[in-house]
Design a protein that fits this description.
By secondary structure, the protein is mainly α. The protein has helices spanning 2-9, 14-30, 35-49, 52-62, 70-82, 86-99, 104-116, 120-133, 138-153, 157-164, 174-186, 190-202, 221-230, 239-251, 257-269, 273-286, 295-309, 313-324, 332-337, 348-357. Helix 6 runs antiparallel to helix 7 (104-116), helix 13 crosses helix 14 and helix 18 runs parallel beside helix 20.
């Protein structure tokens, strides 16, 4: 499943998907009756093709040979979640947790799903269970503070503390740098943000999918473009290089709406208004919420960002209103803190929307 995970997390290119295809084809040729092969094929169809019907066929072939597999139990829950059946997904993840209470993965997936539907109390309990089982994994503590405390309240103190407790040996990776960069942007600490962008450049050149709301890595230089706009600085010619890197990545994965949506945000920041709006709309059309209830709302939120930075304020609030009512859409902490929403902050509708998303509402 290595190529599948690389495809969905870092390299959604047709080349990477072809490598995953080849690995599955080889496994099927060598061991066509092995349950694990059919399970891996099912996940491959889920991750790389969003072909849930064929994934279900392969899962049915795998299930008799893997009666106690949490991976077998989780895949239908993943599919339910993508198709917007969140209650059923929660039931599926809960059943997987009950099957093997010491397996961290189903607990993590349950916790994130509860966060997605804004059930922060239940999500906190799931994260606490996870941390009790794996107390030495700092990433789980960070996730809890990000998805439960910060997203619900906009208070990043506990998140900041959790990040600071990451072992020094693990701190320089791009995940930690990206998290600290997000905090610097929330604080409007432009000098610190610039330093962290330079660190990202030295840690591989891409972020950890934290730039906008589409969860896909982008070139570190995209943050330099954002910082220039936030400080009313002139756009530098070299910014086009970062844009070109992202554009080529999008062209290499023409069906990937997340990359196209991220490119739309960058183009909006570069004042390529017509291109930005066209790309943002096309991304929503390519992967609507009805097709993917997890990634679709993030692309809608990005379209709101595009409208905000291209001066189409009414359209921005229309998209935000939809996102705020949708599972895995915009959250209170994001709206309160992110500078991506600075073009909207002086409009009274912004405070009204913020109040509707506030804790306890």
């Amino acid at each position: 499943r290595a190529h599948d995970l690389l495809y969905v997390s870092y390299d959604p290119s047709q080349t990477r998907r072809a490598l995953a295809d080849a690995a599955i084809a080889t496994a099927l040729r060598l061991q066509p009756d092995l349950a694990d092969v059919h399970l891996n094929y099912a996940y491959h169809l889920y991750f790389c093709y969003r072909d849930y019907e064929r994934a279900g066929v392969q899962l049915a072939m795998a299930k008799p040979g893997l009666p106690n597999s949490t991976d077998v139990m989780e895949l239908p829950a993943f599919i339910d979640r993508r198709q917007g059946r969140f209650d059923k997904a929660i039931q599926g993840f809960t059943a997987a947790v009950q099957l093997d209470p010491r397996d961290a993965n189903p607990i993590l997936d349950l916790a994130y799903t509860l966060y997605a539907v804004r059930n922060f109390g239940a999500a906190a309990k799931a994260y606490d269970k996870l941390i009790a089982i794996v107390p030495d994994e700092p990433a789980y503590k960070i996730e809890k503070e990000l998805y439960v405390a910060f997203m619900q309240t906009g208070d990043e103190d506990d998140l900041r503390k959790a990040i600071s407790q990451t072992p020094t040996s693990a701190a320089p990776d791009r995940g930690a740098i990206s998290q600290n960069l997000s905090l610097a942007l929330y604080d409007r600490d432009w000098a610190r943000a610039k330093q962290l962008v330079e660190q990202l450049q030295n840690a591989g050149g891409e972020d950890n999918a934290d730039f906008s709301y589409a969860a896909v890595p982008v070139p570190a230089g995209c943050y330099s473009i954002l910082l220039a706009r936030l400080q009313d600085e002139a756009l530098k010619p070299e910014f086009e290089q970062s844009r070109e890197l992202l554009s080529k990545k999008s062209q290499a994965a023409p069906s990937n709406a997340l990359l196209l949506s991220s490119l739309a945000v960058v183009d909006a920041l570069l004042k390529r208004n017509e291109e930005a709006v066209a790309e943002g709309r096309r991304a929503v059309e390519t992967l609507p919420v009805s097709k993917d209830a997890m990634d679709g709302p993030c692309i809608v939120t990005n379209l709101a960002v595009v409208y905000a930075w291209t001066g189409q304020i009414d359209q921005a609030f229309n998209q935000l209103a939809t996102s705020a009512k949708t599972p895995h859409g915009i959250y209170y902490g994001q709206l309160k803190k992110s500078p991506l929403w600075d073009p909207l902050r002086k409009d009274p509708r912004f405070d009204e929307l913020l109040a509707r998303l506030a804790p306890g509402k």
